[in-house]
Amino acid sequence: MISKKQEYTVSKNELGKMPLFPEGMLFGAATSAYQIEGHVGDDGRGASIWDVFAHKRGRIYNNENGDQACEHYTRFKNDVSIMSRIGLDAYRFSISWPRILPEGRGAVNRKGLDFYDRLVDELLIAGIRPFATLFHWDFPYQLYRENGGFEKRSTARYFADYAEIVADKLGDRVKDWITLNEPWVHSTLGYILGTHAPGKKTPIYWGRTVHNQLLAHAMAMERIKAASPASRVGITLNISPPHPAGNAAINKSVVGIADQFQNRVFLDPLFKGEYPEQLMRKLSLFWPDVSDEDMALISRPMNFLGINLYSRSRVFYAPWVPFLGAWLKQNRMPNKEYIKNGVRYTSMGWEVYPEALYETLINIRDNYGNVPVFVTENGAAYTDEPIDYRVHDDARVQFLYEYINQAARAAEEGCDLRGYFVWSLMDNFEWAEGYRKQFGIVHVDFETQRRTIKDSGYWYKDLILSNKR
Questions:
Q1: Dihedral of the CA atoms 382, 383, 388, 393 (nearest 10)?
Q2: Longest CA–CA separation in the chain, Å
Q3: Residue 375: phi, psi to the nearest 5?
Q4: 344-380 per-position pLDDT tens digit
């Protein structure tokens, strides 16, 4: 159920003129399967590594999990109607690999495919363009047990098989595909820090997971194009421009290697057919064998690049960090909304730094061939509570206004920006943070599953209408 109270529009006098984009710009919202679907054991869905990880005590805030989440699996029609009320042009969702292939390979679960079939039809009836992401971290647990995850090269072939199955089913209607979401996060938080599934702390696997995810992307792109030649295929990377911490020369000296580790390790092979040379020298003992054929496959042209961006990274000289000698962290405060010395922080503790989006888009324009770009995630977590069926999230409105203005600035200066997706459509299970971090432009009461469009959702609607011409 959603509130029918009067819709709210933020005063343009308060925030200035709405940013305007080139004609054809898409405005959407994004979600991911494990974070919203719930019904994890229903209709033949297999377990994912996140199902297992989230049920290990102490892994997730308050020992929460995605078993129920937003119950989008049964409430998707209502959620699409909310998208229509906001006026979204497009919706970026992810497909649960274990809902399609419960064991990650082998027999197809037709009920799982049918769910996404119905979702796509509902979106198209509403005039909303579907963007399907094939992997948003919920790797099939059975395949992980039997074969390993992306630390195994053979996983790339299994992922391509899965991509082909989904494209065969949906490719007549879905024309925009994202192979992988944030492969750096899956590699780094899942295999070095252990704070994401599968929860490993084995840095020697990091290079393998990087390379094999890139192979999986390339193989999947081939299969999607074969099944649906008119499809447009890309990958989504989390990008965070590195800035030295303070003015110390020693910190400035390690910005380059930090950029290679966090950003260029994926950008360079995709667009230049090579890994960053300095990074490879430092990590050569742990990097898998890479053939010329691999790099030729990985660097085949994509239709677009997806960028997820929230803030910048601060870089410190860190001689205690093996091989790299650098440490990156977002300029942050401890898990709360905070203002210090005029700098704002979200409830994740992340610095509000809108110029990071402009810098990243210009970097793509100048150094990677000005490939078509979609901002596939951007948004902010703040603490929200409905009052009389209204959610006054002024801080989020301000955040979106400032970041979207930086995107418009980059587009005006020639960046080939095609679309922007706010993260996220609705409050959801936010990985290791459980349900305490609220990113949505739609509030969800997880006890009643009541949805309430926040003021930020109505502001976003106003932005979308302002760009219709």
A1: -20
A2: 61
A3: -80, 100
A4: 999 999 999 999 999 999 999 999 999 999 999 999 9
Q: What residue has token string 């929230």?
A: 310
* 278-302 CB burial, b ≥16 within 10 A, e <16: ebeebbeeebeebeeebbebbbeeb
The set of residues, in sequence order, having a beta carbon less than 8 Å from that of 294 and lying 6+ positions away, is 211, 215
Degrees, nearest 5: CA angle 83-387-36: 40
pLDDT tens per residue across span 420-436: 999 999 999 999 999 99
Which helix (H) or strand (E) covers residue 49, if one does?
helix 49-54
Name residue 313's beta-bridge partners. Answer: 242, 330
Q: Could you give the CA distance from residue 55 to residue 349 in angstroms, rounded to a whole number? A: 25
Question: What contacts 127, CB < 8 A, 6 or more positions away?
Answer: 84
Count Cα atoms within 13 angstroms, Cβ side, for 249.
0
For residue 385, count other CB atoms closer than 10 A to its CB.
10
Beta strands in 249-358 (DSSP E): 304-308, 313-317, 326-330, 338-340, 343-345
The distance of Cα 318 from the centroid of its chain, to the nearest Å, equals: 28
SS3 call for 159: helix
d(CA 71, CA 57): 23
Token pair for 67: 């078993």
Alpha carbon distance 328, 259 (integer Å): 9
Give how far Cα 267 sits from Cα of 154, 279, 435, Å: 23, 13, 32
Q: Are 47 and 141 in contact (CB under 8 A)?
A: yes
| pLDDT of 404 | 98
Q: Write out the two tokens for 224.
A: 């999607």
Q: Which tokens is 141 given?
A: 């647990």
Burial class from Cβ neighbours inside 10 Å (0-12, 13-18, 19+) for residue 329 reads exposed
**Domains of the chain: which residue ranges?**
12-466
12-466: in CATH 3.20.20.80: yes
What CA–CA distances, in Å, run from 335 to 352, 397, 435? 14, 20, 13
Judge contact between 124 and 173, C-beta under 8 A.
yes
pTM of the predicted model as reported, rounded to 2 decimal places: 0.96
Residues marked active site are found at: 182, 377
Q: With 0-12 CB in 10 A as exposed, 13-18 as middle and 19+ as buried, what is 4?
A: exposed
What's the pLDDT tens digit per position in 301-346? Answer: 999 999 999 999 999 999 999 999 999 876 555 566 778 888 899 9
